[in-house]
Amino acid sequence: MIDSMPHVPLYIDGEWTKSTSEQWIDVTNPATNQPIARVPMATDDEMAAAIASAADTFQRWKEVAVPERARLMLEYQHLLKAHHDELAELLSSETGKNFADAKGDVWRGIEVVEQAANISSMMMGEIVENVATDIDCYSMTQPLGVCCGITPFNFPAMIPLWMFPMAIAAGNTFVLKPSEQVPLTAIRLVELFEQAGAPKGVLQIVHGGKPQVDFLLHHPEIRAISFVGSVPVARYIYQTGTHNLKRVQAFAGAKNHMVVMPDANKDQVVNNLVGASVGAAGQRCMAISVAVLVGSAKEILPELKEAMSKVKPGIWNDSNAGYGPLISPQAKARVLSLIQEGKDEGARCELDGSECTVDGYPEGNWVGPTLFSGVTTEMSIYQQEIFGPVLICLEVDTLDEAIELINNNPYGNGTSIFTACGAAARKFQHHIQVGQVGINVPIPVPLPFFSFTGWRGSFYGDLHAYGKQAIRFYTETKTVTSRWFYDDIPDGPNMTIHLR
């Protein structure tokens, strides 16, 4: 019976509560499409209560010593590491990711928490003595207030951990609204944060869809909004949030290209292209979905097809599975539709995963590895982010043509080049108009002491996730100019009286 399924709770003012909402939706296992839990669409009163608690707690939390906030993050990362595999298994149950992908998801989040534990040095200000006679000027970094995060289905551990640890370490309080498709991992992350010693009200968790997101976008107490998701939603959140005078960082879609030069190591190219394109079922904004083959590099196509054909999807604990199912039947239908459009538009389908099945799991959202060659920039499979295990190949004659092709694409999340020529790599990294560049690295996601820096149509905002830019996003700078008069210095036997 549906009523016997777990009901995903809200976390408001340090208390786990069942929502009073009359609207609930099923959380399903993508490998079976069977419900595993029910998640509420939080009521307006519940949303307001979460924000009010965060606003009230902020007045106390911002006064907590920065080293004490750092110690909270140290304890939290310790607990996350201790529960790493448990979190990965839970994550697999709601996303369908295989265990290796799920563990990577959790670990990349832990790395950001480790950086949040370094908050003391990142909160330092600046000072200049004697900007004028006996006048000093100095700046200090102070938190904003109540911040919120709206996170997607594809990285339910990593992306929330991009957001709330950095914001809270900087002295803010936080309201998290995870994807309604994958709320279970977020719940466990919050439980462990509570166990680490987080005070009541520092972190809230609410659930829902567009009405709940709109509540956050319009509420006057919300100062900053972090979002990761699709292009239309990112644009909407950026426009609506900034219209309401909020600080917004909205990470959107991508069409990431890998340029393969004729001198590149063929085995390295094939191995990296396969993993970067079909890993996590292609459901990641940093997936390589386009291979740009320069000159004779097109000769790798037979080897690439053979290698991709050996990759099979499967359930999370199948050690032979290269990746899991797509998140939903709707996502599968969209990918299959784009594959068909590619065929109809004249691309050569070298490998077709449309009819993929997995023994014992006939209802899963399976799509096999799919490879297209002969693709042009006018085709829909090039113009749209497919978000599935599909790799398309374009051919050009020169590196300059490859750079021009990528720069003409509206997205600018990540790109890479495989080459043995340092000059080619240098030219590529200098002239490419993409925020994250890999050189003989397929998916150039930076470690968290740098920032995640997508450009152009892949990002709306000014300051990016994690690293130093995250601290700037979640804080304000206050500048103080001070003057003290030497004639007022007390001295002599009456000095103690002046100092009382």
Write the layout of secondary structure elements.
Layout: E1 10-12, E2 15-17, E3 24-29, E4 34-40, H1 44-61, H2 66-82, H3 84-95, H4 99-116, H5 119-122, E5 126-132, E6 135-143, E7 146-150, H6 158-169, E8 173-177, H7 184-195, E9 203-205, H8 210-218, E10 222-228, H9 231-243, E11 247-251, E12 256-260, H10 266-278, E13 288-294, H11 301-309, H12 329-344, E14 348-351, E15 370-373, H13 380-383, E16 390-396, H14 399-408, E17 411-412, E18 414-418, H15 422-431, E19 436-439, E20 455-456, E21 459-460, H16 467-473, E22 475-483, H17 495-499
Parallel strand pairs: 7-8, 7-10, 8-9, 10-11, 12-13, 12-18, 13-16, 15-16, 18-19
Antiparallel strand pairs: 1-2, 3-4, 5-6, 6-22, 11-21, 14-15, 17-20
Strand coverage percent: 15-25%
CATH H-tier superfamily of the largest domain? Aldehyde Dehydrogenase, Chain A, domain 1
Low-confidence stretches: none
- The number of helical runs is 17
**Estimated radius of gyration:** 25 Å
